[in-house]
Amino acid sequence: MLLLMTSAACRSAEPGVQRPSPPPPRLFNFETVKRLAERRAAIPYRIRSTPLPRALVRLSYAQYRQIRFKPAAALWRGQSRFAVEFYHRGFAFTRQVRIFEVLPSGVRQVSYRPSMFTFGPAVPRMRLPDYLGFAGFSVRYPLNTPAQEDPVIAFLGASYFRVLGRNQVYGVTARGLAIDTATVGGEQFPYFTDFWLVRPAPRARKMKLYALLESRSLTGAYRFVVRPGAITQVTVTATLYPRAHVAKLGIAPLTSTFLYGVNSARRRFYDWRPQVHDSDGLMMHTGAGQWLWRPLQNPRRLEVNRFMDDNPRGFGLIQRDRDFADYEDPAARFEQRPSYWVQPLGDWGRGGVELVEIPSRDDTNYNIDAYWVPSAPVIPRRPISFSYLLSSYLHSGERWPPGGRAVATRFGPVMRAGHPVPGMRRVLIDFSGGTLGGLQASQPVRAEVTAAGAAVSRIFVQRLPENGAWRVSFDVKPTGGRPVDLSCYLRLYGSALTETWTYQWAS
Question: Quick one: pLDDT band at residue 271, thresholds 50, 70, 90?
Fold first, then answer.
């Protein structure tokens, strides 16, 4: 346990002898956490969590939800705009995380007490030790109304954390790091083991916290600066200390759910809802300035695609359909689930944004992953540093992206003499936004369509008078047995009007 509290030595002083002043408290900052992470990386990995009573391990999800934190016990309540509530250990959240408060006078550990929680009737009665500790925590702030504190960032389970802006509900999730995702050897899940929460000033509008991450392969020091708002933003700064070789390092990983949507090439589910997803596409802003949009899929088999780039400007998992009628689910509120946008800070070099799509038949599964994979190898005992800005938003306006965007993707049969042509597909893409709305139908807008592994024919562009969108349609015929990679964007007089729509179709 790292404690940096200082106190004056106890002395008996003779009358008239001046007692020496106590030394100033040692400064706790990001460098302190980096030194601790580096020391831990020099020794073999071990799980540092304290034992958990068997009855808590065996809790069902419904039972675990009946363990609730008492709001009156929150850290900083009444002392700051921010307040911190804690999650109990149990169910799938068995690991203990140690939580410290950073004060001007030093650092103190936040102690667990069973009296901080209420236990519902379905939770077995047991005597809980004071060393049990917490599974995680939620930082709250008056985000939507001055009279109520809402969650803005929460850490629970492995290195997962969730960020919310105004009028948002939980959906897509971020992680501290991804290691060997979608590899033959299996994924390795790092854990945040220690947190240091810096007490904000009473009227502060941002909060800082530090974290230490551990896994078999590496340790990491993290700093988070949280700025709540309509778009809540978190500046993440990290330094990793590798113990061993890592085959694939995933930086700024995002995790989401996609069961089906209007972009789906096939509808395989018997469900009353029009769409079911936390995110409907991967958006990228390349180092060369190109905007890419890749609609998500729920594939029949595992799909892994990497979009190579140099010094990316941004990427994220985005929820574009924002009307209740898109989902018709008053409980899940998919239309209020946020988009997450990652903006690299500094030089990230050569690498690629990797998209992992996992087959799923359940909307409770996280089956979508996206993260940055650097081309540079991970070398033991050679630190790796990076920083990025994570934004959680509902509507970006013309910010991400600034031009026209693909708002719908549809598929249908290619008909000849009243019959579908086997092995062919009609693709329809609607673009809207940017300068498209001000263009008349007479403008010579052109579609640039490419297809790897297929032949494309009958490309047609039209402006839809009903909603002002521009629709591109074309026929696709695969030329081999491999998946077809498609791309399309609109241009006028040689200038791009829209982002580039990309798609992979397995015939």
Answer: confident
* Domain chopping of the chain, boundaries: 30-393, 405-505
- pLDDT-based confidence at 313, cuts 50/70/90? very high
Residue 166 near residue 143, CB atoms below 8 Å: yes
Separation of alpha carbons 179 and 186, rounded Å: 9
Question: Long-range contacts made by residues 410-415, C-beta under 8 angstroms, separation at least 24?
Answer: 410/262, 411/265, 414/475
Give the CATH number of domain 30-393.
Answer: 2.70.98.10
Question: Could you report the per-residue pLDDT of 154-187, keeping only the tens digit for each?
Answer: 999 999 999 999 999 999 999 999 999 999 889 9
φ, ψ of residue 394 to 5 degrees: the values are -100, -55
pTM of the predicted protein model: 0.92
pLDDT in tens, 406-446: 999 999 999 998 899 998 999 999 999 999 989 999 999 99
For residue 79, which phi and psi values (nearest 5 degrees)? Answer: -110, -15
CATH of 405-505, one of 1.20.1260.10, 3.90.1100.10, 2.60.40.10, 3.30.420.40: 2.60.40.10
Helix (H, G, I), strand (E, B) or coil at 61: helix
- The strand pairing partners of 140, in sequence order, are 83, 151
Do the beta carbons of residue 413 and residue 475 sit within 8 Å? no
